[in-house]
Amino acid sequence: MSFVEYSEFIQEGDVVIIFLGRESMMPIKVQSGAQTQTRYGVIRHSSDLIGQKFGSKITCSKGGWVYVLHPTPELWTVNLPHRTQILYTTDIANITLMLDLKPGSVVCESGTGSGSLSHAILRTIAPTGHLHTVEFHAQRAEKAIQEFKEHKVSHLVTVRNQDVCKDGFGITHVADAVFLDIPSPWEAITHAKRALKHKGGRLCSFSPCIEQVQRTCEALLEHGFEEICTLEVLLRVHEVRTVTLPLPDFGPEDGSSDLGLEDASNSTNSSVNCKTATPPREIAGHTGYLSFATKPRN
Ligand SMILES: C[S@@+](CC[C@H](N)C(=O)[O-])C[C@H]1O[C@@H](n2cnc3c(N)ncnc32)[C@H](O)[C@@H]1O
């Protein structure tokens, strides 16, 4: 198993996502002889997991069942151990697109934090790209190195335990893209410019506060960056539900099939059941602003 390549069968040492329900999942490391307790009973790694196909439905000791899923960056984001605030898929999708990441891209990132974004970047740039990620908190850097090894992606990533604002990214004029998620990104713009390839290259900075955005954009302008733009990505998940509506009386003719009604057999004389999608009354909270820029091409 690797986070950048799909395997069919579960092996010792793999990370598996135990899916108990949409809102209830847990990552486990498969070890022969080990057991994992769930609300549906025990999962015995040797007999229930090793050799099974990823995606299988397995029965726990109390008779309940769970799915055993292959890990992906999206599943990791909602299951990873939090060491910091993390980026979620809504922002990650935009970052990946707007930084023009693809297989073979060389990318710089700081800070590594809990590695949520790092895993998504690694899947996108594999099999020939490289991620240089900088984290000044020693234990977080160490934990990230360990996770990348366990997830079989360490050949694609270099973790540096240093202050990006003082010491930069450790590479010069090779990166296709730079991503910043640190409290004072404006202090890292000189280093970002040096890490980016001579001409072109994209930069993105994530900040929760507009004052941080202002200072970062000023620094980007001072350093000659172009196409500077800031956006906020808000997700609106529409809820699909069945509602009962009173049936209008159009006279003696039966017009229910012309009205797009779900199923005439669900209808009574006076009401009808149909599916409707409603937008959320409240939009999920602000995460942060994404500021993008391009290094001049000439
Ligand atoms: C919000 S977290 C990053 C989360 C990450 N984007 C993710 O998705 O998991 C910010 C990280 O940046 C690190 N950091 C802050 N300032 C830094 C600096 N100057 N140099 C290197 N790392 C820094 C912090 O230690 C923290 O781990």
Automatic annotation (TrEMBL):
PROSITE patterns: SAM_TRM61 (PS51620). InterPro entries: SAM-dependent_MTases_sf (IPR029063), TRM61_C (IPR049470), tRNA_MeTrfase_Gcd14 (IPR014816). Keywords: Acetylation, Methyltransferase, Nucleus, S-adenosyl-L-methionine, Transferase, tRNA processing. Residues 64-295 form the tRNA (adenine(58)-N(1))-methyltransferase catalytic subunit TRM61 C-terminal domain. GO terms for biological process: tRNA methylation. S-adenosyl-L-methionine binds at S114, G115, S116, L117, E135, D181. Its EC number is 2.1.1.220. The keyword Transferase applies. GO terms for molecular function: tRNA (adenine(58)-N1)-methyltransferase activity. GO terms for cellular component: nucleus; tRNA (m1A) methyltransferase complex. PANTHER family: TRNA (ADENINE(58)-N(1))-METHYLTRANSFERASE (PTHR12133), TRNA (ADENINE(58)-N(1))-METHYLTRANSFERASE CATALYTIC SUBUNIT TRMT61A (PTHR12133:SF2). Catalytic subunit of tRNA (adenine-N(1)-)-methyltransferase, which catalyzes the formation of N(1)-methyladenine at position 58 (m1A58) in initiator methionyl-tRNA. Catalytic subunit of mRNA N(1)-methyltransferase complex, which mediates methylation of adenosine residues at the N(1) position of a small subset of mRNAs: N(1) methylation takes place in tRNA T-loop-like structures of mRNAs and is only present at low stoichiometries. Belongs to the class I-like SAM-binding methyltransferase superfamily. TRM61 family. Heterotetramer; composed of two copies of TRMT6 and two copies of TRMT61A. This is tRNA (adenine(58)-N(1))-methyltransferase catalytic subunit TRMT61A.
